[in-house]
Amino acid sequence: xxxxxxxxxxxxxxxxxxxxxxxxxxxxxxxxxxxxxxxxxxxxxxxxxxxxxxxxxxxxxxxxxxxxxxxxxxxxxxxxxxxxxxxxxxxxxxxxxxxxxxxxxxxxxx
Length: 110
Hints:
The protein has about 110 residues and is an alpha+beta fold. The protein contains three helices and six strands, in the order E-H-E-E-H-H-E-E-E. It has a single domain, classed as Alpha-Beta Plaits.
């Protein structure tokens, strides 16, 4: 999740920036779904769902993210969330995907 806050006159510029990011990330086969949209007044958001958590972390380490965070200092927020349990569907897909090396069930208590 990436969120940028901007003055009303700069919202179109921010929207275009996040749409370009979405288009560039679409080439990643591990990106299941992504969306860009308007949040609260003055906010533009990007949400991406990756098959593997390390791919999402790679997105947050991207040069674009560092450059954008510097340019919009104080107005930029990015976060990665790893789900522990299934909680729903989005566009017909389960949001949680089994991460490599993580067991399906918690270990049995001794």
